Amino acid sequence: MVAPLLAAAAAGPVTIADGHHRYETALRYRDERRMSRSCEEDPAFDYVLTLFLDTTGQTLTVLPTHRVVRGLHDERADRLLGHLHDFFEVRRDVSEEALRERFEAAGLAAGGDGRFGLWTRQGGAILTARREAFEALLPSGGAAVRALDVTLLGVALERLAGIDDDAVAGGAVAYTKSAAEAIGWVDGTIDASDAAFLLEPTPVASILAVAADGDVMPQKSTYFYPKALTGLVINPHEW
């Protein structure tokens, strides 16, 4: 049974998903264990349990993760809304119902076109990125990671609302898989939520291209569905 699996895995490149935490944590755990038990032969900590999926045999669903911007207060909120045209084509007067319908079903969309939904207490809009406006401001990396919707949105939030990496780490942006929940946070009074940015999925081809360039995906840019069941097989962690 094992030999055919090894042959299939060796037939082409393998892209690691969830590499930001599970895989990197497994590597750090292995290295720590090697320092204390370097003489052990073929130890379990040299391995990590892996689920292999074929991205070509059937459709792999990648759901979007929506962003909710919090704590802007009036001045920065006004600047954000007033300067959207710096980066986007803006179609205003989009109803809450229309945004819910479109972006709750976003998992079925192709994605990758630089299109976002926006909901604030002033109403809704559809934003389409003007990529030429981003060109001089994009972070370092290959063409694939620079072209991602989440990369474009990150640049826009930093330039228009001052939300940089430190602000994100401090909780200026909240995340949810539900477009309805994102809109509801803005409509309510939860955590001073000011604006919901609704995203379409990241295409699988874009994820593979980012990995092929040697880059890693930005935070909260992929949500693979369905998730594998856990707890059925457990790797030993004895000390």
Description:
This protein is 38% helix and 18% strand. The protein is α+β, with helices and mostly antiparallel strands and 239 residues long. The chain folds into two domains: 2-52, no CATH class; 62-212, Conserved hypothetical protein from pyrococcus furiosus pfu- 392566-001, domain 2 (2-Layer Sandwich), CATH 3.30.1760. The strands form two sheets. It has a six-stranded antiparallel beta sheet, sandwiched between helices. Strand 4 (115-120) and strand 5 (123-129) form a beta hairpin. The two termini are 30 Å apart.
Task: Summarize the helices and strands and which ones pair or pack.
Elements: H1 2-10, H2 19-36, E1 61-63, E2 66-70, H3 73-82, E3 88-94, H4 96-104, E4 115-120, E5 123-129, H5 131-134, H6 143-146, H7 149-161, H8 165-169, E6 173-176, H9 179-187, E7 193-199, H10 204-212, E8 223-225
Antiparallel strand pairs: 1-8, 2-6, 2-7, 3-5, 4-5, 4-7
Structure in a nutshell:
This protein is α+β, with helices and mostly antiparallel strands and 239 residues long. It has two domains: 2-52, no CATH class; 62-212, Conserved hypothetical protein from pyrococcus furiosus pfu- 392566-001, domain 2 (2-Layer Sandwich). It contains ten helices and eight strands.
